[in-house]
Amino acid sequence: MRDLAPTLLSWDRFAVASVVAVRGSAPRPVGAAMAVGPAGEVIGSVSGGCVEAEVHDLACQVLETSEPAFATFGYSDDTAFAVGLTCGGSLDVLVQRDNPSLRAALQASVDGHPVSVRFEAEGRTFTESWMPPPRLLVFGAIDHAAAVAEIGRFLGYYVTVCDARPVFATPARFPAAHSVVVDWPHRYLASTHTDDSTAVVVLTHDPKFDIPVLAEALSRPLAFVGALGSRRTHAERLEKLREAGVGEASLTRLRSPVGLDLGGRSPAETAVSIAAELVAVRHGGTGLPLTTLSTPIHRTLESHGTDLPQRRRHAGRPTALATAGHADGVPGAQCGQIPLLLGAGEVPRDARVGLGLGGG
C-alpha cells in the first residue's frame, strides 16, 4: 500500500484492497494493494489481472458503505471468465475505506518514518507495517549512474548519487535520484548510516575514488557491493584493495564486474543488468532463465537472500511511529502476539501483513 501513498493522499476518499494471505502460487505477494478513487479510477494491483474486476466492484461497495470487506479468491476452471486465479493458488483480500488514522500512517510513511497500522474485519485484526525503503548509493556521476538511479528508484530504493566533481554531480543530470551529493565517495559513505539492506554500486572507473569507497563499503554489513569495470580492471582493483588492507573474506563480497550477463552495452542495458543482479541477490534468485528451471517461480520468505535476516532484525528495530491509537509497532518483540502471515509468495521487505488473535 505504501507505494500508492502519494496518490491516495491526493484523493479526498478511497477504498484500498490489500493481499493479506497467499496460498500456493499467486501473481502478487502478501502486501500487494489496489485502490479505487472517488471517480472509480484504479491504481495498483492485487493479482495478475485475474480478480481485479471483482476486487474493483468490492472496493466500490466499501467506498459506498464504509464497511470493510474480506474475500478469498482461488483457482476456478468452471468457465473461461470465472473469478479465480488461473495460476492455481489462492489469496485473501481485505478491503477498507480511508480514515484519518490510515491517512496519517500513509503520510508518515511518505515522510520516511517506520509505521505500523492495525485494522479489523470479520472479527480478525490485521497489522501492516512499512519500514523506510532500502537505500541505493551510486558513486560516480556518469551516464550509467543516471540509468542506474532511474531503475533503482523504480525498484523502490531511496537513491543517492555521489561524486566529488560538482560540475557532474547535479540534480539536473540525475532527475530520478532522491538526492545528489557532492563529496568524496569514501568520505560521504563513512558519514552515512547504512544497514544490511543498503546497496552500493561504484561506477567511477577511477582508482583514487574506487579503492577508498570500496574499502569502506566492504567493511560494512551491506546487502550488495558492486563495481563497474572490465575483468582486467577488476583484477587490478583487487590487488589495490589488498594493499589497502581489505581481507580476502571481504573481497569475496565484491560483485565485480557488476551485473548479470545479459549482453547489453548501453547505459540503459547496463543498468538493467545491474538491477537484475540486485533483485537476484535480494530474493535469492539464480539469474537463470525460468524455462531452464523446474523449481517454483515464487520462493517462500525463508529462501530469499536478505529478507530472513530482516525478519530477525525486527526485534532490534525501534518501535514504529504511533498512529492515532492504531499503531502496534514493527512486528517482533514489540507485538509478538501478532504472527506474520507469510503465505507461499514473495513478501516485499517494506510490506508486512499480520493476523492478530482477536479484536484486542
From TrEMBL:
Listed Pfam families: XdhC_C, XdhC_CoxI
Coiled coil: none
Domain (XdhC Rossmann) ranges: 136-278
Gene3D superfamilies: NAD(P)-binding Rossmann-like Domain
Span of domain XdhC- CoxI: 13-74
Protein name per its UniProtKB record: XdhC family protein
Organism: Lentzea sokolovensis
